[in-house]
Every structure is written in C-alpha cells, then in structure tokens.
C-alpha cells in the first residue's frame, strides 16, 4: 500500500502539471486569436469598428491592479484613448488608491493643463476632475464598503433624531433610494458604470463599490502593460451590441 | 432479467465514474481547491428554446427543470471535490417582473424541488449538507416560504457542506437589510462599522466566494453577492446552465488555481491594512 502511494503521488503530480500546461496552451491560443482580431481592427479594414455607437455607454469604469497603476504614463495614455473614442465619464479604480495620489501627474502631462481641473487629494473621498472634455472620477477601496458604513451612520443619526416620530417606533425601515440618498449626502454618490474594464492578472473587481455594480458588464483586458487601443475599441463595440433583460 | 442486467450495468458505470472522479479530484487537490463556489445559473430558458422543450404557456418551467438536474449533479461534484460552500442564484427580486405564469411556475417548481432535496436519497442527505435560503423571504408565496423554513430547520444541525440558495434576493436589498439591522442594534454613540454590516448580511458566517461562475457567457453579476465578491475570481463560461458539466467545473477550478496566488496576495494586503 505504501509503495502504491509512493508511485501514485508523482504520477498524480505529473498529471496535475499536464492539466495546467493544457490551460496555458488554451490561453496562448486565445491570446493569439485576440492579437489577430486587434490587428484587423487597427488596420481599419472593418468599418463597423470605425464609428461605434456609444449612446448606451454613459459611464465607463476601469479597474487597474495597483502595481500596474503605478505606471502613470500608461494610465494617462488609456485616458487619452477613451477621450478620443468619445467616452464622456470614466471611473478609475485601484484598490490601494495609487491613482488618487497620482492625479496631479495626469494634470501636468495633459496637452493643455488648463483643461484639467483637479480637486485636492483626500484618501477616503472620490476625486473628480475634467480631462479633455471627459469627466474622470478616481476611487479606491475606501470608497466602497467604508462609504456604505458612512451612509449607514448618516441614516442612523437621522433615524435617532426622529425617534419620537410614530413611524420610527416600528423600527428603522429603509429603501434602496434611501441608501442612495445617504451615499449622496456623504459624498459617495457616483454613477453606476455600464461597462467595467479590468486591467490586471485576473478577472476580479478588487472591491469596486458594490452599490454601483448591479448590472455592470465586466470585461477582463489583461495586464495594463500590454493594453491596446484596438482591444478597447473591440470591447466597446461588443458592448454596444449587448442586450440586457434586467431580470425579465 | 433484462431490467436487472440494465440496472447492474448502470450501477457499475456509476461506480466506475465515481472512482474516476475521485482520481481527478485527487489530482486537482494538489493545487488550491476553492472553499466556496457561487453560481449564477443563467440560460435555462434559452436551453429550452434551443432544444424545443415544451416551453409554452402550459409549462413555462421546462428549462428550469433541466437546470435543476444540472444543479444536483454540480452539487455532487463540488462536494466530492471538497468544496465546503456552494451558493446559487435561484431567483432575483428582479425576476418578479417576469410573466406571472412563469413566476408561479417557478415558485411551484421551487417548492417541489426543496421537498425533493429533503428526501432520503437526495444529495443533501448523502453529504449531510445544510441548506440556507438567503433573500427577502417575505416576498415569496407562503407555501414556498414555509417549505424553505422547514428545510433550513431540518438541516440546521448538519455537519457537512453548505448549499445556500439566493431566492427573492438582490445584493442591494441585502445591503439595505444589513443597514437596517445595524441601525436597529445601535443604541450608543459608537459608529456603525463595516464589520457591523458584515455581521448583518445574509451571508454572515459563510466564507466569501472564491469563484463566481455565470453561465451563458454573460459578463455581469446582476446584483449577486456584490458585497462579498471583492476577491472572487469572476468566470463566465459560454455553456448554458443545463449544459454545465463536470469538465466545465474542472476547467473553472484550474483557472482559479492559476490566479489564486495573486488574489490571495491582494486580499492579504487589504486585511493587513484594516
């Protein structure tokens, strides 16, 4: 029995590695196909990618891994692309708030600094500014669950102030619009993105504010270092063709 | 005699499949196995349409019946693999907007299937699993609500894995409910913290999902586990839910194993900073 397990373990280990080699091969193949698609898009051969209808895309979010987000020039390049395509509102998110600390870099490196108006950096608050006619909102992990806790405290203090009210004697009763109003009151009332692009090693939203993610389409773009304009164009085109039932 | 032969062959095939699955899961467990997988079971109606099942006004739930069979087999595979928590998005609050006949058919199906899950030869009994129902259960019809409560009471002391069924559920409703409960608790001047909200979520006491799988290739979460999915690997395989099989589950775990180190690192960094 001992001999059987001694023989079996390395064999199982080899099979395990083989399975992961197959996964890597499939990823490599998908990546190749994607590169070819991007090449065709960037060549301009397909007219459908030239004029994308962005009517349904009111707000776009971009989640960037914090390590990738330290590459300010890449982030700035991405913002320029999005502005050129015609996106009107971008929400930039990274978990550690690297981009919040870097907002002045986007201001300085824009062609016309007067086109960017920045607010002062506050780590627990969203940062909003205009860039090339596009509104940019920068948020981080503290704008998620902690913001909801702030909203809860706002509702709690209002509830306790009105405790003599007959309705309140039945206990607190809040609706989703109440929560949205509370989030607005505490300065965390950003819009829900229609589409969210994830730049990083995994398709994971890394703590993007939950209240704003209800029906957001989430697409994984790979590492920021290998970002391509044609990949962004493809995603926006695919989004323009999407149909949602909203539960119906 | 023929029937006996057939049933012996079926049993033998079942045993062989079980042994092969055990080997396969043994191989997978060399890497990290997710403790919690959540499923958005999307695609039942499209499956019924595609396969021309009797999805008409007299039987709008035919796709969902096939979907339920897939749920049972997926549960079995997950529990055999060692997944401790499985959560499924069975019915959203938004789904009440559907045709009333379809909604009623779904409610009837849910009651029927909950009763089935409590029988002796069900997958829950086999694994001594516990069942939870998460959502605003007051929105359900009384027969379904009572059946769900009965199921939770009957399995509350089970020591095995956990099946959590999100029904009459949305994440924003869950967050609202958690805020209400947190405000109700607060008497003194101490502020409400994130930990208070965590404690009042329907999911309190359950690990956060490692993987959230939405079938049919759709890329949104549709108001499912938004609060709990900070570090979940989001996957959207193309097969419709009734087509989701063992090989898709194995692939999902392999994909998760590829990114597990990265997600664990990011999660650890946030928890260190709390």
What brief labels describe this structure?
heterodimer; A: 6-stranded mixed sheet; 8 helices; B: 274 residues; 6-stranded parallel sheet; 9 helices; 51% helix
Describe the model.
The complex is a heterodimer of chains A (248) and B (274). Chain A is an alpha/beta fold and 248 residues long. Helices cover 44% and strands 13% of the residues of chain A. Chain A has a six-stranded mixed beta sheet with strand order 3-4-2-1-5-6. In chain A, α1 (2-43) crosses α8 and α6 (145-161) crosses α7. Chain B is α/β, with parallel strands linked by helices. Chain B has helices spanning 2-28, 44-50, 62-81, 100-117, 123-127, 142-155, 171-185, 194-199, 246-273, and strands at 36-40, 85-92, 130-134, 162-169, 211-214, 233-235. Chain B has a six-stranded parallel beta sheet with strand order 3-4-2-1-5-6, sandwiched between helices. In chain B, α6 (142-155) links the parallel β3 and β4 (162-169). At the A-B interface, α1, α6, α7 and β6 of A face α1, α7, α8, β6 and α9 of B.
**How much helicity do the residues of chain B have?**
40-55%
Taking all Cα atoms into account, the compactness measure Rg of chain B is 20 Å
Helix-strand makeup class of chain A:
alpha/beta
The total of helices of chain B stands at 9
Rounded mean pLDDT of chain B is 92
Interface with most residues: A-B, 51 and 55 residues
Mean pLDDT of chain A: 87
Q: How many beta-strand segments of chain B?
A: 6
Shape annotation of chain B = globular
Question: What is the strand tally of chain A?
Answer: 6
β-strand amount of chain B = 5-15%
How far apart the termini of chain A lie comes to 57 Å
Give unreliable regions of chain B as ranges. Answer: none
Enzyme class (chain B): transferase
EC number (chain B): 2.5.1.-
GO cellular component, one term (chain B): endoplasmic reticulum
GO biological process, one term (chain B): polyprenol biosynthetic process
